[in-house]
Write a structure and sequence with these properties.
This protein is an alpha/beta fold. The protein contains 3 helices and 10 strands, in the order H-H-E-E-E-E-E-H-E-E-E-E-E. The radius of gyration is 15 Å and the shape is globular.
Amino acid sequence: MNIKNIIKKIRRNLMSPNEYAKSLGVKLGKGCFISTKEIPEEGYLIEIGDYVRIAAHASIYTHGGIFPLRKYYNDPTLEQFGKVKIGSYTSIGAYATIMQGVTIRERCIVA
């Protein structure tokens, strides 16, 4: 394991979920309460509004989900990235999965 991976692991374990999200570049609104660290390295693609609650074990993805198309087109380099936007006053429930390119509007509940 190289030093970069060791630092990532320490940072992930010692920081609060909110601090960890910000360290990855997530645009985090005021009054948010995040209970998960299932955030990709491309945190700069994630924008979270004010007073959002994200429960434990929820996952946010900014890439992937097209593995079958890699096989279909026989292109191992095929990849898809997309922004994720979560509007203010929204609640994301435990074990919810938010995929790339998704926008969740204000005042929503995702279970």
